[in-house]
Design a protein that fits this description.
The longest helix has 21 residues. The chain has 12 helices and 15 strands. The chain is globular and about 60 Å long. Strand 9 and strand 10 form a beta hairpin. The protein folds into 2 domains: 124 residues, Ubiquitin-like (UB roll) (Roll); 294 residues, Glutamine synthetase/guanido kinase, catalytic domain (Creatine Kinase, Chain A, domain 2, 2-Layer Sandwich), CATH 3.30.590.10. By secondary structure, it is α+β, with helices and mostly antiparallel strands. Strands 7, 8, 9, 10, 11, 12, 13, 14 and 15 form a 9-stranded mixed beta sheet that branches. Strands 1, 2, 3, 4, 5 and 6 form a 6-stranded mixed beta sheet that branches. The protein starts with a helix and ends with a helix.
């Protein structure tokens, strides 16, 4: 039975009072809402403003969710001057209030979500159509209506960099100041050289309640990966991915480094992926993909079939920026086609090895620059599409998937991906038409601005040769 609005109000107030009592040194709180691009936006409140936020919500300009990646208004979003830049109400996400341990001033942070201005007995009104978090909530609810609870884990790759002139380079080790010049995949020396930074990162994760697990050095100099724990709560998994990215960036900054989830910072080095691990539980909490067969159950193969069938038109969500498409290269650990396989990292949809109860799909197309709420939502909707339509993914790829004949290929350029998204009936349903229109308005403005820039390559190639 759902709690009454009065009980919800009491629970919110009790949560904030417990936190303030447990953290008397906290002076400020960062209010964080995630926009279409996955960028955290908001403001810093004084300590005394925190309880009113939990009790009554807070007005914030609705256009905060209609900004492009540079923070500029997108008039075509329908959230700016056509509606007078009207306010919307934001409310805290229960359970997300935590410390921001990388900041010198004692500061907390809380995720918020946007709703219409109307409130019901002191609680949120209708979900705001521009908030990516509500897109994921809808995707989870649609799977639950079929009797399934998604179990999700985020696996994020990132770089630790330092600035050099107008550019960046892989960061020197914190201990010994050794330059990062070698690939050294899985190298323990890379981890040990960054030990002070990672010690602070793990301590910060504990303070924030984030379930960070395995740390490893990835394939490129300065590249690392940390996995987050599987959650039978897809929304919590996405919230934790958002908070984890903030933690990495903040902790790196304290150590004089840049923590970056850019998809492809260096042309000759590996890109950064966001691998989404998903299984489905039934009403009794059993994994419906579990099987002795390494390929899983028929339901797993149907879910893979749905992800496969919807991947090309969904690429604009998985690769949302111009730089995102630089990841998709032969033999790069980033996929180039909607393929699947068993224990095979050359495909888009990998079924990892392991005990029967652990059987799941690892979705590999996303760059680390993808919005976690939207990426996970579209993955869940793709799986649902496959289950509802009992799709067959065909035989798994064996060997080097990059060398196999391709029935179809992921878009390799941003405008092509946006065109495919605009024509997609699947995305209209998965994201809702109002949100898809907002997403495309933002991305089209970014694409236009990006293509209008004159770069160093323009001068190198054309200044004297043209």
């Amino acid at each position: 039975m759902n709690a009454t609005p009065e009980a919800d109000h009491a629970a919110r107030v009790a949560e904030v009072r417990r936190f303030l009592a447990a953290h008397p040194a906290v002076e400020a709180v960062q209010l964080v809402i995630t926009d279409v691009n996955g960028v955290g936006r908001g403001k810093t409140l004084a300590r005394e403003e925190l309880e009113p936020l939990f009790a009554r919500g807070r007005n914030v300009a609705g256009s905060i969710l209609g900004l492009d990646i540079t923070g500029e208004d997108v008039e075509e979003s329908g959230l700016v001057w056509s509606v007078g830049d009207a306010d919307k109400m934001v409310w805290p996400v229960p359970g997300s209030l935590c410390l921001a341990p990388w900041l010198q001033r004692p500061t907390a942070q809380v995720l918020v979500t946007q709703h219409d201005m109307a409130s019901i007995a002191g609680g949120p009104g209708l979900p705001g159509t521009a908030d990516p978090r509500h897109v994921l909530a809808r995707a989870v609810a649609r799977l639950e209506a079929l009797g399934y609870t998604p179990v999700v884990a985020a696996e994020l790759e990132f770089y630790l960099l330092e600035r050099e002139g107008h550019g960046v380079k892989p960061a020197r080790a914190v201990l010994g100041e050794q330059p990062a010049t070698r690939i050294d995949a899985y190298g323990l020396g890379k981890l040990e050289g960054m030990a002070p930074l990672f010690d602070d990162l793990y301590a910060g994760a504990r303070a924030m309640g984030l379930p960070v697990q395995t740390l490893m050095s990835e394939y490129a100099p300065g590249q690392f990966e940390i996995t987050l724990q599987h959650r039978p709560d897809a929304m919590r998994a996405a919230d934790e991915a958002v908070l984890f990215k903030r933690l990495v960036k903040g902790t790196a900054l304290r150590h004089g480094r840049v923590g970056s989830f850019m998809a492809k910072p260096f042309a000759a080095a590996a890109g950064c992926g966001f691998h989404i691990h998903v299984s489905l539980q039934d009403a009794e909490g059993r994994n419906v993909f579990a099987a002795e067969d390494p390929a899983g159950t028929p339901l797993l193969r149907q879910a893979i079939g749905g992800l496969q069938a919807t991947m090309v038109e969904s690429t604009a969500v998985f690769a949302p920026n111009a730089n995102s498409f630089r990841r998709f290269r032969q033999n790069s650990y980033a996929p180039i086609a909607p393929s699947w396989g068993i224990n095979n990292r050359s495909v888009s949809l990998r079924v990892p090895p392991g005990p029967p109860a652990s059987r799941h799909v690892e979705h590999r197309p996303c760059g680390a620059d993808a919005n976690p709420y939207l990426a996970i939502a579209v993955v869940l909707e793709g799986m649902r599409y496959g289950l509802v339509n009992a799709l067959d993914p065909g035989p798994p790829v064996t060997g080097n998937g990059y060398e196999k004949p391709l029935a179809s290929k992921l878009p390799t350029h941003w405008p092509l991906a946006l065109e495919a998204a605009a024509a997609s009936g699947f995305l209209r349903e998965a994201l809702s038409l109002p949100f898809l229109d907002l997403f495309l308005a933002v991305k089209r403005q970014e694409c236009e601005k990006f293509n209008a820039r004159i770069t160093e390559v323009d001068f190198e190639w054309y200044l004297e040769n043209a």
